[in-house]
Design goal:
Length: 125
């Protein structure tokens, strides 16, 4: 039996599909921890290939993604919005603006390399 170039290509792509399916099955808890993984995947691509250090996750008004190694990025981001850092309690960072409005930024790791920040604005903001 002669193996043609077409058969080699089919075997190659078949192996790629099998490897992809196995990876999804093995890493399913990580990939789907936030439900639909597409906003997080889009955020990772924007962080890697864009010039921004923080990106807003699509489909959410108050979720942002940063690289985990850049823990102070939220301070710069909130300062640009007019808020000054006041204190930290665990994974929560408190900020106040000049009108005494408060913002809470909570942090959680999406993976070893990326963090998700949830912002909550208190006192009318």
């Amino acid at each position: 039996m002669k193996i043609t170039k077409r058969n080699k290509i089919l075997v190659f792509f078949g192996l790629l599909v099998i490897i992809f399916v196995l990876a999804v099955l093995l890493y399913r808890p990580v990939i789907f921890q936030e439900g639909n993984p597409w906003p997080e995947i889009k955020g990772i691509v924007q962080l890697k290939f864009g010039d921004s250090d923080i990106v807003k996750l699509s489909g959410s008004d108050n979720k942002f993604m940063t690289e985990s190694k850049n823990g102070t990025m939220i301070h710069d981001f909130m300062k640009a919005k007019g808020y000054e850092f006041t204190e930290q309690m665990g994974s929560g960072y408190f900020f106040k603006d000049k009108n005494e409005n408060t913002a809470l930024a909570t942090h959680r790791y999406y993976s070893r390399f990326y963090s998700i920040w949830s912002l909550t604005f208190i006192n009318g903001k």
